[in-house]
Amino acid sequence: MLAARTSAAPARSCFRSSTVPRAAFVCLPVNNVQRHLPQANNTAQLQHRSYATPTAEKVAKFKGQKQSDGKYMVSLIEGDGIGPEISQSVKDIYSAANVPIKWESVDVTPMLKDGKTVIPDSAIESITRNYVALKGPLATPVGKGHVSLNLTLRRTFNLFANVRPCKSIAGYKTPYDNVDTLLIRENTEGEYSGIEHVVVDGVVQSIKLITKDASERVLRYAFQYAQDVGRLKVRAVHKATIMKMSDGLFLSLANKMAKEYPNIEFDAELLDNTCLKVVTDPSPYNDKVLVMPNLYGDILSDMCAGLIGGLGLTPSANIGDECSIFEAVHGSAPDIAGKGLANPTALLLSSIMMLQHMGLTEHADRIQGAIFKTLAEGKTITGDLGGKAKTHEYAAAVIKNL
Ligand SMILES: NC(=O)C1=CN([C@@H]2O[C@H](COP(=O)(O)OP(=O)(O)OC[C@H]3O[C@@H](n4cnc5c(N)ncnc54)[C@H](O)[C@@H]3O)[C@@H](O)[C@H]2O)C=CC1
Ligand SMILES: O=C(O)CCC(=O)C(=O)O
Ligand SMILES: [Mg+2]
């Protein structure tokens, strides 16, 4: 569908919307592809989205956390770059919506302990105490410098499954209507294990670690998630043709796990083929839960975000047995930081996943209703979506729509 032209300058791309006649190709500068697509008619509904079906046990755990003023304490990591701006939007909207949450601000400035990068004890204590955290993006230096704090947090709290839904936004036109992908990424190992060394000068080795335990844990979570939300098809995404042992182990465990869930249809697909198919026609993925090793999920989730309007829109949940941390798919966006240009929707929707996880569904419904209404009206939206609104103006519009 998306065919880049090599001869035109500036670079242009031509595509055909699935909703317009065959001949109706449109050619636009590539960086405007998402924005100006009057031919495509996004028919996504303003329906509420449910990402979590918390067990009675889990809800009781959070109820037990309720303080004497009826509020729940939640750890908040504002993060780097655009983090403080988008966190402010969440705080403002939650305050206007009277959500019974008190934010406990957490500092995760890295420290060195026995030669290892660690996060301060006070941060660990806060998240352990509150069971949940909302987290803005944390920047990782390229090449040298400290290890990723995002990964450190995931490992510290054993947040083994990363749930990344990506669904079209009503009223926001993109090349494909009604995208609805749901990806579950192994979150603690794989290419992200950070085990690297120099073999000899000019030769480095990076270990992709795949274990039975971590694979089984995320696979079980994916099958159970599929069962709970009634999305009864699970597909493992892998590259076991090349990484016969590591991805091979992941895949064989997936096949085994499928036998424990006979009502769930299971199949597998090679990663490169998944990439091609998702960008060619995402609709066959609308009824599936995709489960995969760490790096594949990282890359595929950014790619899926591109199908619905970009990283300003996609949330995620890092789930563990005890604690869970909710964050946007995107990073610290240094190119727009401090300018009031960031779209806080991704972090807001991550906070909706958090409220649902905590069983606070009425508040989740009310806020997501206001978010989707504001986006559908299209009057007060941020620059990434083709609007002119500043981050705080968009937040004010959401508050008005509460
Ligand atoms: N979970 C996390 O905290 C993550 C952290 N990072 C870190 O973020 C830093 C920057 O990474 P990049 O590759 O630039 O990726 P990025 O996700 O920060 O930005 C990619 C592009 O998307 C845009 N964008 C992202 N979020 C947006 C928002 N809310 N509203 C509007 N536009 C938005 C940015 O302006 C940029 O053009 C790096 O240090 C990286 O390590 C990256 C991904 C995830
Ligand atoms: O930790 C980082 O720097 C990047 C993490 C990332 O891209 C992600 O979790 O999606
Ligand atoms: Mg990423």
UniProtKB/TrEMBL annotation:
Gene3D superfamilies: Isopropylmalate Dehydrogenase
GO molecular function: isocitrate dehydrogenase (NAD+) activity; magnesium ion binding; NAD binding
InterPro entries named among the record's database cross-references: IsoCit/isopropylmalate_DH_CS, Isocitrate_DH_NAD, IsoPropMal-DH-like_dom
Co-factor requirement: Mn(2+); Mg(2+)
BP terms from Gene Ontology: isocitrate metabolic process; tricarboxylic acid cycle
Keyword Cell cycle: no
This enzyme's EC code(s): 1.1.1.41
Enzyme class: oxidoreductase
Record keywords: Magnesium, Metal-binding, NAD, Oxidoreductase, Transit peptide
Domain Isopropylmalate dehydrogenase-like per the UniProt entry, residue ranges: 73-398
Catalytic activity: D-threo-isocitrate + NAD(+) = 2-oxoglutarate + CO2 + NADH
Keyword Magnesium in annotation: yes
Superkingdom of source: Eukaryota
GO CC field: mitochondrion
PANTHER family: DECARBOXYLATING DEHYDROGENASES-ISOCITRATE, ISOPROPYLMALATE, TARTRATE, ISOCITRATE DEHYDROGENASE [NAD] SUBUNIT ALPHA, MITOCHONDRIAL
Record-stated family: Belongs to the isocitrate and isopropylmalate dehydrogenases family.
Summary of subunit composition and partner proteins: Octamer of two non-identical subunits IDH1 and IDH2.
Full protein name: Isocitrate dehydrogenase [NAD] subunit 2, mitochondrial
The species this protein was found in: Cryoendolithus antarcticus
Lineage: Eukaryota, Fungi, Dikarya, Ascomycota, Pezizomycotina
